[in-house]
Amino acid sequence: IGNSLAISGGVKGIIVYRRSIDEFTASERSCPFDPLVNDAIIEIDTSQVIGVDRHCGSKFSFADGSIIQGPASRGLKQYTCEYDAATQQIYIHN
């Protein structure tokens, strides 16, 4: 709980965050401030709960994709996550 992992998928990748024992979020790694810039990628900071775009300086919460610090004016794109406790698999989709 409270850890993040970057995986492939989405536009520039997806960050999966574990909110609780059976609840996950999945956020797009492309920064909404300037998504067409190649370097505008959300990185996981040392806390594992905050994402940072080192290109523009925006910060986001992985718990819900909300903005912590601008200049971004929109939160991270969120994908739908479904967790199957029986198989311990996460299904991520639009």
Low-confidence stretches: none
Task: Report the strand count.
Answer: 9
Listing every helix as H and every strand as E from the N terminus to the C terminus, the arrangement reads EEEEEEEEE
Structural class: mainly beta
Count, helices: 0
**How big a fraction of the residues is strand?**
35-45%
Major sheet: 5 strands, antiparallel
Silhouette: globular
Distance from first to last alpha carbon:
23 Å
Radius of gyration using CA atoms only: 13 Å
Average pLDDT: 95
* Strands in their spatial order, largest beta sheet: 1-2-3-8-9
The level of helicity is: under 10%
Structure commentary:
- With 94 residues, this protein is an all-beta fold.
- 0% of the residues lie in helices and 45% in strands.
- It has no helices and nine strands.
- A five-stranded antiparallel β-sheet has the order 1-2-3-8-9, with no helix packed on it. A four-stranded antiparallel β-sheet has the order 4-5-6-7, with no helix packed on it.
- Strand 4 and strand 5 form a beta hairpin.
- The relative contact order is 0.22.
- The model has no long low-confidence stretch (mean pLDDT 95).
Layout: helices, strands, pairs:
Blueprint: E1 4-7, E2 14-20, E3 23-28, E4 42-44, E5 50-53, E6 59-61, E7 67-69, E8 78-84, E9 89-93
Antiparallel strand pairs: 1-2, 2-3, 3-8, 4-5, 5-6, 6-7, 8-9
Pick out its properties.
globular; four-stranded antiparallel sheet; 94 residues; 9 strands; single chain; 45% strand
What's the short version?
This protein is an all-beta fold. The protein has no helices and 9 strands. 0% of the residues lie in helices and 45% in strands.
